[in-house]
Design brief:
By secondary structure, the chain is α/β, with parallel strands linked by helices. It has one domain: Aldolase class I (TIM Barrel), CATH 3.20.20.70. It is built from 11 helices and 10 strands. Helix 6 links the parallel strand 6 and strand 7. Helix 4 runs parallel beside helix 5 and helix 5 runs parallel beside helix 6. The longest helix is centred in the last third of the chain and has 16 residues. It is globular, with a radius of gyration of 19 Å. It starts with 36 loop residues before the first helix and ends with a helix.
Length: 313
């Protein structure tokens, strides 16, 4: 009997250019229902400071749960990206000028929300000479000033052809450096056009070289038609770059204009991937259908930090 949660084409590398009927979502793709009170409070703080979140712009399925806990991933440098990735729901186009007041507003929101851990991400800004690295660094420094007890995770672009950009971000001293690999190399032309797989691996490796104690993190999505061997190869490449923390989640098609879901990966397969990742030496692994790069980021970082502390004792 055919698997109703799989739509694997004869030539998987062409899946992202073909029109296919959306697959029915399986029972394990369920978003938790939460109350509205805390979510509304989170929205009020964000709107009051005139800020965007990747939770909204990328149509994250965990928005309600995270906002109900006053967790949000701040999206800086505008809501228009200079790239058009096949999986992403953020608008593509010509961005506006950087907002010099944004770092201070993000920092004020972090303080007002009482966050103990915050995640800062951004659109790609290939139009800027440093890819926006100086702006990200300014956000980090502002958060340090306004909320000195908050740990900071940055989820950065790849800074392709922007020499010195990574160093600018690292000099600002984030607690976690995150850059998502997103998918296996075979699908980069359709899923991450404009990016280069081995450049992203090298970026993560360079971050570790600049600060050996820095937690480095990367994530990928499954469901594009990749094979188990391809996922294992990505794990090996990330470990070769000494990445500490890997996240693996199910890709969900934002609109019919985006790459189709080729298959829904079962919870048991995610558990198997998690076991493989731990066996390969990742210090922290998050793998489930609804795992996203920032999902439970604060709790996971605290666990990783506790592990490191125990290792020194």
């Amino acid at each position: 009997m055919a698997n109703v949660y799989s739509n694997v084409p004869r030539h998987p590398e062409k899946a992202h250019r073909e029109e296919t009927e959306p697959l029915p979502r399986p029972a394990w793709i369920r978003v938790r229902a939460v109350g509205e009170d805390m979510r509304s409070q989170t929205m009020a703080v964000l709107r009051g400071h005139g800020l965007s979140t990747v939770c909204e712009e990328a149509s994250c399925p965990n928005l309600a749960e995270c906002w109900s806990k006053r967790h949000a991933t701040f999206l800086v440098m505008g809501d228009i990206c200079t790239r058009g990735c096949g999986f992403c729901n953020i608008r593509t186009g010509v961005p506006g000028a950087l907002d010099a007041g944004e770092p201070e507003r993000v920092a004020a929101a972090v303080r007002d929300m009482g966050l103990t851990h915050t995640v800062i991400t951004s659109v790609d800004r290939d139009d800027l000479s440093d890819g926006g690295a100086s702006h990200i660094a300014a956000v980090i420094r502002a958060v340090r000033e306004y909320a000195p007890g908050t740990t900071i995770e940055v989820l950065t672009p790849d800074f392709l052809k922007k020499p010195g950009a990574l160093e600018i971000v690292m000099d600002a001293g984030p607690d976690v450096f995150n850059h998502n690999i997103e998918t296996v190399p075979r699908f980069y032309p359709s899923i991450r056009p404009g990016a280069r797989y081995f450049h992203s691996i090298r970026l993560l490796q360079a971050a570790k070289e600049l600060s050996s104690r820095m937690v480095t993190k990367s994530g990928l999505m499954v469901g594009f038609g990749e094979t188990r061997d391809e996922i294992i190869q990505v794990m090996d490449d990330l470990r070769s770059a000494e990445v500490d923390f890997i996240t693996i989640g199910q890709y969900l098609q934002p609109t019919r204009r985006h790459a189709p879901v080729v298959d829904y990966v079962s919870p048991e397969t995610f558990e198997a991937y998690a076991s493989l990742a731990r066996g390969k030496g990742f210090s922290m692994v998050a793998a489930s259908p609804l795992t996203r790069s920032s999902y439970h980021a604060g709790e996971d970082f605290e666990r990783l930090r506790a592990q490191r502390q125990t290792g020194r004792d």
